[in-house]
Amino acid sequence: MDKKEFRKQAHQMVDWMADYLETKDSFHVSPKINPGEIYHQIPEMAPEEGEDYDAIFKDFKDIILPGMTHWQHPSFFGYFPANNSEPSILAEMLTATLGAQCMSWITSPAATELEERVLEWMRDAKGICSTWKGVIQDTASTATLSAILAARERACSYSINENGYSGREKFRVYSSEHVHSSIDKALKISGIGQSNLVRIAVDKTYAMRPADLEKAIQEDIINGFTPLCVVSALGTTSSTAIDPIKRIGEICQMYNIWHHIDAAFAGTALFLPECQWMIEGHETADSYVFNPHKWMFTNFDCSVLYLKNPHFLVNTFSLTPEYLKSNMDAEVNNYRDWGIQLGRRFRALKLWFVLRSYGLIGIRAKLRHHLALAKTLIMEMEAHHDIEILAPVPLNTICFRYNPTSRYTLDELNYINEKWMNLVNQSGRVFFTHTKLEGKFAIRWVIGQTDVEDFHIKEAWNLLLHKLPDAKPYVKEK
Ligand SMILES: *Cc1c(COP(=O)(O)O)cnc(C)c1O
């Protein structure tokens, strides 16, 4: 493709992009596709001869698009969103065009320095300690793994980095029962071992019980373990339960344990003064992660890790082979030393575009709109005698089920609700996912899409009511 053709195609593509964004709620949220259906439409061999761009783009529309789940659809209520926005998309276009690899200051000074600045902006706007420093990672999984590795190296004075495990270390990491699977994964990768993740019981709001945490730590110490890290959840994935950060922090301080706060989704809420209570007491913690790529209108991937003492992280990761040395190293931040990967995308650009385009006022307005939509919906649900809300809703994730009073057993209810959710999803108009709370199948309704409006919620609610499982005595299908 020559530059002239690029210009022509790019203009047309922007029109396609704008059309897509304008009409995205007309698509089926999740496609009706069987496994292998897309794979078999793609030729077995790479083309020998270059093909026309028109042919490539036609296949994108004919083969790929029908196989996509439309994550930006306003009625995508599943998982947590990975929402984006127009300024973020524009920045991603620039990032792709510049094609810079931002591993060190010298490989693109602007990328490093913009990253420093926008992370300071967000830190201050979110009420995080003004002395903490941040770095952008690809995902919360990577950020949490990085924090756990730094905790490990702090605890062993960098000896595992140097010599590997001696075999005498018996580290323990603590989290609530509702911990995200990325913590399990981090323990597998870091050599701490998944079986050394201690899952602390939760209270009736699904938040960690600090008294149980302290008890587990004391027992572990008696049994010769080294309590290494507590991962508290500022918004669990199941129901956005908020662990008591302050109390957990006090315990961590008492036993000299690294405290990592996982705020992957809910951390965005801290832009709202009325949500600041969630982070009260975080000053004593060591690290904090949140994903602008979930609820902050910023394209996947973009996860921000803040640290009280970045030198533990940097000492864990830094290596400077001769070919990466520069005479600026003493004066600048080389973000390659702040994480696992060497090569880094220029992710700060999209954050800058989003923050400037919305402004903090615009971001807060969007978040409040989502929270208000959730409040209204909760009132509707509470007014319906067969709908049960299964967990407190501190933000915009509602866990609910159909439960006509005491007619069904737990298994029957689980079966009915799963069937109900699948039926509604099959309509293609909405998309829900589920979790289990105390064994109960709970449909999760997350209201965090950039363009979600009142009528999307109403439509989905009516659809759910319309497809309510039959109230007749229940017979399980074979
Ligand atoms: C989504 C989520 C993660 C994982 O996020 P990735 O960026 O996909 O790795 C971790 N913790 C919590 C609480 C989450 O909700």
TrEMBL record:
Cofactors: pyridoxal 5'-phosphate
Family indicated by similarity: Belongs to the group II decarboxylase family.
Regions that span the bilayer: none
Annotated source species: Anditalea andensis
PROSITE patterns, sorted: DDC_GAD_HDC_YDC
Name this polypeptide is given: Amino acid decarboxylase
One example GO MF annotation: pyridoxal phosphate binding
One GO term (biological process): amino acid metabolic process
Modified residues (N6-(pyridoxal phosphate)lysine): 294
One Pfam family, short name: Pyridoxal_deC
Keywords, ordered alphabetically: Decarboxylase, Lyase, Pyridoxal phosphate
GO CC field: cytoplasm
